[in-house]
Structures are given as structure tokens and as C-alpha cells.
Amino acid sequence: MLLLYLFFLAAAAVVTADEGAFIGVNIGTDLSDMPSPTQVVALLKAQQIRHVRLYDADRAMLLALANTGIRVTVSVPNDQLLGIGQSNATAANWVARNILGHVPATNITAIAVGSEVLTALPNAAPVLVTALRFIQSALVAANLDSQIKVSTPHSSSIILDSFPPSQAFFNRSWDPVMVPLLKFLQTTGSHLMINVYPYYDYMQSNGVIPLDYALFRPLPPNKEAVDANTLLHYTNVFDAIVDAAYFAMSYLNFTNIPIIVTESGWPSKGDSNERDATLDNANTYNSNLIRHVYNNTGTPKHPGIAISTYIYELYNEDLRPGSVSEKNWGLFDANGVPVYILHLTGSGTVLANDTSNQTFCVAKEGADPKMLQAALDWACGPGKVDCSPLLQGQPCYEPDNVVAHATYAFDAYFHKMAMASGTCYFNGVATVTTTDPSHGSCIFPGSGGGNGTLTNGTLLAPSSNSTTSGCPSLHAYSAGVFMYSLIFGALLWRAVFF
Q: Can you tell me whether residue 71 is helix, strand or coil?
């Protein structure tokens, strides 16, 4: 079995431009066959995952994490928030039981008090900041306040008018909570925790937000979204949401509070009305997210200021209620088998078993033959692939069908472009694999790999109405141009996409 190895580099809990970012994972437990804490930790160690967030403070899990060095964010569940927010003694008991009983052996670095309280449990909002203060007081008493930071994760939906980011502000009805909360975070040196889900923004935009923009697929500079107030260019939804949070804090006169993204991801499977919840898109989003975080580029508003992010989530949770997508956000199944192999070429040591020299671009199973032929024509024409091995009598002519020929052309283009992000897509009819498609005397570029699991590349989208199939037609292919002109709000938040 090919294991997915992720190197989640250690970094300090407080993010600055100098310290760099980290990628962590959330560990949900709504599985019918939840692995034991020992098994969970074994997977974390095997994958070199160095930062995790728990949705509670489960004793067995914290004991299993002891002496691993893994940085742990524990949580006060929403159902315990009212009690803690109404009683300093209850908060102190919670800290004594769930923190003091485990440090320093377990490397607890943060406490998330509640989860999306303002939107999920608004009746507890009046005691939210009090709960944070009570937890902080208990940490101060134990001399742990410099090691363990306290905050609370928010849904990005509390930010209104988030496009363009420069005009964003928090829902004013929450000012009685947000202002003292931000003062608390500023005073204690803690992060604003926010959950960022471009998938939901994309799904709820009714086609206004292009899929490529949500998935971090590369855009040429003249096609990026531009904030007319600041002239900042945005290449993806993630950065726009994070900067909207920065601007919303600035609106309340808080300019020095760092942000950490406590949840972000993309579902790998969905209902019939969730057609973009796919393995390919989940792979593309999370691979590009990891690469984006480790590049330390920051956001347009704060370039070079790292945005550490926890991927949602470690396991698929089959017991979660709701749509199919709700159960399919995980990187692994309950047996620790990767749902897909992240394609992280160019991201340094993030992928331990780096298959960058053993990765192939192939025709996707079940792809429309007409679309395959169109993409094949493009690769052998404008794509400037040497398709001569596909001619009759040459090593890759057999089998003489559009799938086999397209696979060769796709892979030749993929390697010609140095497997760059966006070069194995072809309007969705191509996919990346670690299984070598070479056969007989037909040797593919990059040959030498072993067996593997299918994953997706990113952006490339030739399309055609060609109806031919079989042997490739080596003629030029003219792609159509699809343009969007969007105005978000009253301030000319404009974006044009190819």
C-alpha cells in the first residue's frame, strides 16, 4: 500500500513573517469505527503531522499524544461553554483536569473555547468573552499563559460585505462581543481564529465565483480579482476571506492581531447537487492550500505574514449528519488509508515519499471520448507535444484508441511543463497517477514509478466540439474564451477570469 506521507513542519504557535507557517489537521471523531488514540497518534507520527486540533480535551487522546512533541490545540465543547462562562471555579476545574493533568508531557499550545459560537450557539455569546477570561486566569495562576494561548474559532460568515475585502466589517450586532474579544486577544497575544471554507463560498455564489478561483488554480495577473479601494490583487478566495477578516478588525481599530485558520478544506464526495465535491477538487484544493501556506507569501494585505492553517480534517466522518459532503472532508479513512494522494511537487519536504519523478498524467476513467479527442488535438497542436510516437508503426501507436493516445499526450505535456500546477487538467478529462502507464516498448516520460493511487493535478482547460476519436488528429486546436466581469458591492470589486 502506498502511504501518504505529509511533512507538517514545526513552527512556533505565534505566527510572524520570520517564523513561517505550519499546516495542522483537525481530528473529528464521528466515525462508526473510530481508531483508538494510539492508532491515531501512530498515523500522525507516520505522516509527520506536528500540529493537531481536537474538538474536546479527551483524556485518552491527550495521554496518547504525550511525549510526541506534537503541538495540540484542545477545545472547550459548546455544550460546556455556558457553565465555564458563568463560573470562574468551573473554568479553573476544567483547566486543572484537562490541562494541568497533561502538561508538560503533552505539548498543549492553545485552547479553543467553543466553536463558531456566534453563529452556532448565539445564546452563549454573552458569556463567551467571560469564558475566555476565566480560562486565561486559570492559566495565569498555573504560570502557563505564555505557553498556552486562548481564543475561539469563528465562522467567516460573521464578516459582512467581504467583497471587496477592504470594505469588510463584522456583523455590527456582535460588536458587544467582538470588541471585548479583540481586546482580549490583543492583550494576551493570541490569534483571531477563523474557519475559511472557499467550498461553501463557491457553492453559495450561484456561479459568480469561478471554481478555479476557489481552488487556488493559477490565474494570469490581468485576470485576478482587484480590490478597487486598495488595488490589491487576489488570486484565490482563501486570501480574500483572510484579508476581509484583517480589514474587519481594522474597522474596529485593531491592527496587530494575527490570524490563524482553524478549519479549511474541500469535500471529496457529495450529493447529486454537489457536483464539485470530488476527489479531484479536494486533492487540488488541499494540495494547493498546503503549498500556499508553506510558501509564506501571506496575503495581499499582509505579504510575508504567514497564515498557519488546520486542514479539515484527518478522517472522513461517516456518522456526521447532513449531506454526503459532510461525511467526506477527510484525508484518510478509518483504516488510515489515504482518500487521495496529495500532489505536492514543488513544496519541499511536505510530501515524504515524493513521487515527483514517478508521477504521470493520464486520461480519466470514463471521460467523454469527444472531450478526450479535443484535448488530445490541443496537446499535439498548440500544446506542442511531440506526438510522433503515436503515429502508425511507432512504439505508442497500439492500442489504437483515443484513451491510450490521449494518455500519452497528456503525460508528455505534463512532463514537458515540469509537472507544474495546472498542467494535468484538460477540462477535467485528465488526472494524475503514480502508476506507470508505460507498456511494451512505449515508455512514458517520467517512467520508473510504482503502483499508486489516482490524484488530480490543477489547471488546464482546452475544450472542443470535435467529434473525432481513435488515432489523434495532429492539427491546431482553438480553445474558446470564457470571461467573467464581476462587480461585488458598490465599490467596483472587479474580477475577470479566463
A: strand
Which pLDDT score, from 0 to 100, does residue 20 have? 64
Phi, psi dihedrals of residue 79, rounded to the nearest 5°: -75, -5
- String of DSSP letters for 360-375: EEEEPTT--HHHHHHH
Residue 37: what pLDDT? Answer: 93
Residues 6+ apart with CB under 8 A from 254: 182, 183, 186
Pairing of strands 225-226, 233-234: antiparallel
Strands 149-151 and 169-170, bridge-based pairing:
unpaired
Q: Are 331 and 405 in contact (CB under 8 A)?
A: no
Angle at 321 between CA 334 and CA 329, to 5 degrees: 45
Give the pairing of strands 159-160 and 233-234. unpaired
Asked if 64 and 93 touch (Cβ cutoff 8 Å), the reply is: no
pLDDT of residue 358: 61
Q: Strand pairing partners for 71? A: 51
Distance CA 391, CA 402 (A): 13
Distance CA 127, CA 88 (A): 12
Positions of the chain with pLDDT lower than 50, given as ranges: 1-18, 346-357, 449-498
Q: How far apart are CA 482 and CA 200, in angstroms?
A: 23
Q: What is residue 100's DSSP assignment?
A: I
User: Which residues lie closer than 8 Å to 206 by C-beta, 6 or more apart?
Assistant: none
CB 329 within 8 A of CB 267: yes
Find, among 151, 116, 120, 157, the residue nearest to 133 by Cα.
Answer: 151
| Backbone dihedral angles phi then psi of residue 495, each to the nearest 5 degrees | -145, 135
pLDDT for residue 434: 63
Q: Which residue has the cell 486542514?
A: 311
**3-class DSSP assignment, residue 305:** coil
**pTM of structure:** 0.70
Largest CA distance in the chain: 83
Sign, CA torsion 301/302/306/310:
negative
pLDDT at 421: 56
Q: Which residues does the annotation mark as catalytic?
A: 116, 263
313, with CB counted inside 10 A (0-12, 13-18, 19+), is: buried
